[in-house]
Amino acid sequence: MALNYWTTSHQPKRNISPSRSVERFYRLQSNKSYLTLSLNQNCLIERTPSNQFRENSDLPKIIAKSILSALALLKPEFNGIHTDINPNNVFLNLTEPSPVVKVGDLGNMLREGYKTIRLQCLPCRAPDVWRGLGCCYPSDAWSVGVTLAHWLSPYNIFGAQDKTIQGFTKAWCIAKIRRLVGPLDPPVNSDYEEEFWLGEQLESTTFVHPDTNLERPFIQVGTVHQELEKLPGPKISPELLDFIDYLLVVDHTKRPTALEALQHPYLQSLL
């Protein structure tokens, strides 16, 4: 069964629940496969700057609740995980009477625990996936947190966009997580031990810049909370910052699933 888009919409003064906010494009009674295509005029990260929505706006709540509502349906319906939530797979249409959010690219949906290869794009990859544990339901929740952070920021906070060395992209990404959120437990797969070791070195060491002859750290970001607080332009509401922190927990056993995240007070305040 091939799926392409789930659509969620928000009506003012109306709670969004997973059962009614997701438009499901499949038929459980049929053995046939369906591919649903949708023309999207707006892409969340490219076409909808966050500046005007950072504070005193329901739009970040609508986006978060819509994505999480779609993810919450994957488990009961398919026992599946999206594995590829990122800013380019979440689409937003503000031309309707109320915002419409679409989660795209369900072609990478897999069963929980898949670990033959490490899934998720590098900037949005959860620590548990980096370690080789495979994708679990909290792995998708991590990607939602990164997606929100990258929508709010004019640059990618996670990932290797700021890499200043040749090669070692994965180690750089690991080093960024260590600095932005906290240290990761060792990998469970020995194939990943070298990149984890190098990531730790990059996060904790410095180099002498050839142009200035000044010593500087390889990884120059602070915590994700600090990076979001210092963004130019309108400030991000403290409640939204706390919600992103809630999703970005290194330990997947302490990180919420999509269904649990929907119960967070930040989203429950959405009328």
Order of helices and strands: EHHHEEEEHHHHEEHHHH
Structural class: mainly alpha
Cα separation of the termini: 34 Å
Please list the strands of the largest sheet in the order they lie side by side: 1-4-3
Instruction: Tell me the helix content.
Output: 25-40%
Radius of gyration: 19 Å
Largest sheet: 3 strands, antiparallel
Please report which band the strand proportion falls in: under 5%, 5-15%, 15-25%, 25-35%, 35-45% or over 45%.
5-15%
Number of strands: 7
Q: Which descriptors apply to this entry?
A:
about 270 residues; mainly alpha; 3-stranded antiparallel sheet; two-stranded antiparallel sheet; 11 helices; disordered N terminus
Description:
With 271 residues, the chain is mostly helical. It has helices at 18-21, 44-47, 59-78, 127-130, 137-152, 169-180, 193-204, 224-229, 238-247, 258-261, 265-268, and strands at residues 6-9, 80-81, 90-93, 100-103, 110-111, 206-208, 215-217. The chain has 11 helices and 7 strands. A 3-stranded antiparallel β-sheet has the order 1-4-3, with helices on one face. A two-stranded antiparallel ribbon has the order 2-5. A two-stranded antiparallel ribbon has the order 6-7. Helix 3 (59-78) packs antiparallel against helix 5, helix 5 packs antiparallel against helix 9 and helix 6 crosses helix 7 (193-204). The protein is globular and about 55 Å long.
Q: How does the SSE layout of this entry go?
A:
Layout: E1 6-9, H1 18-21, H2 44-47, H3 59-78, E2 80-81, E3 90-93, E4 100-103, E5 110-111, H4 127-130, H5 137-152, H6 169-180, H7 193-204, E6 206-208, E7 215-217, H8 224-229, H9 238-247, H10 258-261, H11 265-268
Antiparallel strand pairs: 1-4, 2-5, 3-4, 6-7
